[in-house]
Amino acid sequence: EDGLDGWLRYARLRDCHTGGQLDDFATSIVALNATEGAPLHTAAHELQVGIQGILGLELDVSDSVTDKDTSSIIVATAQAYEDEFGSLPEAVDLIEDGFYLSNKGDDTVIIGSNERGALYGAFEYLSMLAQGNFDEVAYSTNPDAPIRWANQWDNLWDNGTHGPVERGYGGVSIFYDGVGHVREDLSRVPMLGRLLASIRVNGIVINNVNADPTILSERNWDGVEEIANLFRPWGVRIGMSLNFASPQTFGGLDSFDPLDDQVIDWWQGISDEMYERVPDFAGYLVKANSEGQPGPLTYNRTLADGANMFAKTIAPHGGIVMFRAFVYNHLADWTDWHADRANAAVEFFAELDGQFDDNVVVQIKYGPIDFQVREPVSPLFSTLRETAMAIELQVTQEYLGQQCHLVYLPPLWQTILDFDLRVDGQESRTRDVLNGNVFGKKLGGYTAVTNVGMDPTWLGSHLSMSNLYAFGRLAWDPTLDSGAILDDWTRLTFGLGRSVRETIRAMSLESWPAYENYTGNLGIQTLTDILYTHYGPNPASQDNNGWGQWTRADGDSIGMDRTVRNGTGNAGQYQPEVAARYEETETTPDDLMLWFHHVPYTFELHSGKTVIQHFYDAHYAGAETAATFPKRWETLRGRVDDERFEHELYRLTYQAGHSLVWRDAINEFYRNLSGIPDVHDRVRHHPWRIEAEDMTLDGYVPVDVEPAETASQ
Ligand code: BDP
Questions:
Q1: Beta partners for 449?
Q2: Annotated catalytic, 291?
Q3: Distance 315 CA to ligand 1 centre (A)
Q4: Residue 686 in contact with residue 620, Cβ under 8 Å?
Q5: Where do the TM regions start and end (predicted)?
Q6: pLDDT for the residue 570
Q7: CA 415 to CA 670: how far, in whole Å?
Q8: Considering the domain 15-141 in this protein, what is its CATH number?
Q9: Average pLDDT of the chain to the nearest whole number
Q10: Which protein residue has the closest C-alpha to ligand 1 atom 13?
Q11: How do 99-102 and 108-112 pair as beta strands?
């Protein structure tokens, strides 16, 4: 049990779970019109393998119903089913990628609106069986939004700066060899395709948003084509990140001006070649004019000019352009109290609304800054009325413990997806913006920075895989319950034992609040080291530079004043009702107080605590929760296979320790800065901490740690 199969282990059910169910189980799988290499063919094969694993039954696959006396599992597209049987079951009601599943009656019937949908239906049925669920069902299910993409930030070159996968914690790239080429051994690609298909992710961008133009080199074209071929049987289409300056830096032109005919022709050539090699290519992802990346602003062209240039080259082929709204000036003057990185997206994009081509989708990070432990929803979602939009989530835990900490993310995502943006004073949840209900856009949806690697655990930790699983489930249906999704994942990943499920559920649901508690509270953001690692505590690094998120902490007070009245005006970027709420401390929720307001450390929160005492208490509480994780995991010894058990025990033990480092570093820092003691007198006593000075260690030398607060003495 190394984790490589993730939640698709197809472990054999015990007799107590199958009791009586196998006698009249189907004896064959019928796949109508399945062609080798197409998703329907994959579906039939997956059913065969899955049922063999889960139930121990050997089923044949055929292409027509021959023996009417025995029952079959019929898997087909709606078209093929209708051609064969004359009509569709009544409850079939499908849009693109949707499926119908029925195990009522003699046969089990899986009908996809297309082949991809049929494959999703097969996975759904296998997921039921693997969970010991033999209930009779008959229903159609459809995606909430058409775009459900993974974004991999894989680098072609592992030049040491960002490693083989930028912000990846699961080993080297599954796509590239680290010296500029698509790797020879692409055996992980179909395995990832299988995982993604099972959670109904239908696209994947295969390279870093900080894109290297050499992905377009002659040699890499073949590799890209090969990657697409390996994903295709799983219904996963590939996309590619582009570097805006490629025509100049790679193509040898003297410009990359998006309105220059030569430049347009150059890109048209790229797009044409792409579709010749990869006819189902999904589209491009573009990061432009952000964090030093080139873009159209260099030529005084708008971001829309840039996006539309790409869009026009692939519109005839049916492709789309995901254009990132993560545009800000990382060289902004941090001493200017009216400057605000959180304002950037609306400032850049609001005036462009209506100027994007129909096949451009603006891809927006969930919050206005950058994947922090707590952010309000990006106000851009309620600003762009004429523009297709997708949300960008982050499965890779860049600021959230980097897979060394258990942080189950769906509860965080749901604060964003469920948020009511009050567009025109009406209920308008973010998820209803993404599915087009609020502004009537057909394109839209969900993307997540996934960053799996060659590690057998894919992400670097077994428990982190629940975030990948949940991303797909939520992208299909954002109204699902985070806990219920997790229960499915746990049954599929670790089996049907109740204590395993309950323990993992309780720890996971406590994990994001705990992480928020022992890192950055009240909307002050994660307080990690900001300039390099994005890991571990370093509150001082948040200010004094343009990349930082600016806490504005001084001896008396803390927080970004984002009010319209005195601050950066960010609160005013929301729709009037929401803006009014965030403008005043009285109506701002505690968990965003320091995001929107600059207040004294002695400011009294709605909870009745002062800001500084909340910091102290939260840090002790968070670390206390983390301290329970290894103990609770210990109770599962023997109930989880040893290999995965030990791996997670190591991780959770580390997390418990690191949460103390976090706790003491942050508390010391603000104790020193504010001069206000903890009313419970804990700070500087470092409860539960083992001091290096108290140990005898061989072969170690003392070093100064950065920042000093992370050392307790
Ligand atoms: C930041 C990451 C950086 C990415 C950037 C982005 O630290 O590695 O390049 O976001 O999303 O969070 O473009």
A1: 151, 394
A2: yes
A3: 28
A4: no
A5: none
A6: 98
A7: 28
A8: 3.30.379.10
A9: 95
A10: 209
A11: antiparallel
